[in-house]
Amino acid sequence: MIALRAAARLGLFVTLFAAALHTVPASATTYTVSNTNDSGNGSLRKAIADANAHIGADTIWLIIGTGEKTINLSSQLPDVTDAVLIDGWVQPGFSSAPLIRIDGGAMAANSTGLRIYAGATTLRGLTFTRFGTAVIVGGGDSISFRGCYFGTTGAAAFGNQTGIRLYAGTNITVGGSGATDGNVISGNTSYGMYIDPAIAGLTLKGNRIGTNAAGTAALGNGSAGVRSFASNVIVGGATAAERNLFSGNGSDGLAIEAGSVGITIRGNYFGLDATGTLDLVNEAGAISADALHRSVLVTMQSEFAAVATTEEWTLAVEAGDTLPVSNLWDSTGHARLPEKHAELHKLMREVRAGIDDDIAATEAHNIQNTLYVGQGVSSL
User: Fold this and answer.
1) Does the predicted model carry a pTM greater than 0.85?
2) Domain range spanning residue 152?
3) In whole angstroms, how far apart are CA 341 and each of 5, 146, 187?
4) pLDDT for the residue 283
5) CA-CA-CA-CA torsion for 182, 226, 171, 180, nearest 10 degrees?
6) Cβ proximity of 149 and 183 under 8 Å
7) In a domain, 350, yes or no
8) Buried b or exposed e, range 269-279, using 16+ CB within 10 angstroms
9) Label partner for 286 (CA 20 to 30 A): which of 31, 50, 70, 262?
10) Which residues of 66-104 are buried (b: 16+ CB within 10 A; e: fewer)?
11) How far apart are CA 209 and CA 226, in angstroms?
């Protein structure tokens, strides 16, 4: 009886040990896409399915002959449910612009090209054209888009309705500061990007949104270039390589909606070309540098009223003193006092955080600003 019990325990141990080995993530595997077929061995569809079935982060290389290739889809690709790098930069002949195009022209108007539900996942060096929504992110952490085109081949529009839709996920990066990291999100008939409130942590750097790949001509999205309801968003950065270009769009270049908090916007161009010298205006509105300059000068010379609290005013009246008048700089500082934040926040919400009206002028767009929308503070 004792021997039988010991054997049973040993058998149970072996079974549990084998099960544990079975669930340990396997080492990364590389799958190669070798043809433009919509299904079968060597296809992108098969490679994504195989990577999903293999536990652990994997890589999918697109090496299809040489030069430009198009994969025409008849149905949506499999959802990405396990971490993967889908890499078009390895296509022979690649230098800077994507050579692999994934096209949904044969699919329904409301079709989706690819949905991502797992991180860390990266799409790199791919072009998505003629889908209802090219790529949807529905979940996952550390998802990135690098060097991809959405709605354009770089010079001509082959628009999706929406380029990228971010429903849910954390720490998502669109672009980067590397020479080929920036995405081109242009020519889409509705939004370039649409970002839902559930997104937590988003960085946009080095992208061209509403222009051709060179940033020299408008290739606008039909509505806003980017419309965001998310919080903790970084747009741009301190260097030219991190600058986003929001120009040529049918509505706003960038729309940050009410309720967003922790928004940093720095060093971007709105309504300009890549050099910052030519107008490529977003249709939501523009003001010339001359008009802006005149407005500031007039405001500086205006006779400002005295600004005081009720207590300060009462004391001045009782003492027979004259309150000093304010000026542009003191008035701005007074508006930033903590007790004024709620009022300022309300005003900013009413103008959609002040991002919707683009200023098509080099002088204005060279301003390095950080905007904390949730606190209602604009710091220049």
Assistant:
1) no
2) 31-270
3) 73, 37, 39
4) 82
5) 0
6) yes
7) yes
8) bbbbbbebeee
9) 262
10) eebbebebeebbbbbbbbbbbbbbbbeebeebbbbbbbb
11) 8
